[in-house]
Description:
Helix content is about 30%, strand content about 25%. The chain folds into two domains: about 15-80, CATH 2.40.240.20; about 90-245, SPOUT methyltransferase, trefoil knot domain (Alpha/beta knot). By secondary structure, the protein is of the alpha/beta class.
Amino acid sequence: MPATPAWPPRSAPRLFLPGPLASGASVSVAGNQAHYLAKVMRVSEGDAVVLCDDATGEWAARVLSAGKREVVLDPVERLRPREEVPDFWLCPALLKKDRFDLVLEKATELGVRAIRPVVTRRCVADKLNLDRACAHVVEAAEQCARTALPHVDAPVSLDALLRDWPAGRALFFADELGGKPAATAFAAHAGPAAIVTGPEGGFDDAERDAIRAHPAAIPVSLGPRILRGETAAIAATALWMGAAGDW
């Protein structure tokens, strides 16, 4: 007797939708998401789609109808609740668009809770299209099967970041001039944390002094080599997640 195929199949398309989702409460998808389902994935009535809403978790849904401009879906079964993620913020200096897109994508895949972009004196870019950044994060979350979206903030100056830093959250500082070995420092810390990483040209002396003078700051080293801005942000996040047990 042949085995019953898994449902939903692993190949089912994934989408984040505004929530909350609930069993039997059909939802309509329009615009680019409808085009993706109907034209790219070619779903039809009865096919499976996996839905997430960043609130209730992950759902298996059936396609009720698939038109050119609208796809109607019926959430049938909740597959898993919204995941718990470590309380870790990535505070990367803004980079050129393609490089910062990579930071957004990989930080999402690695499981950060929030991304708080920072503008420093040597940043090549000083603006961020927040809608585009959020859409990029959603796409990354869909591809890596996250059920929780990281919050993406509008960029702030380094001065503002330091001035408004919340009490009780460690501020690790990826300082190219050196500090404690990052893996050792991360493993020794328990509780809410964040790391600030620099732009293409690094931090200037005044910025470095300001960060080091902050009471929450813990300067760390990411190794003997000078890393590009996007590499530093991604490597630091991976190290922290490993130390936190998220891997």
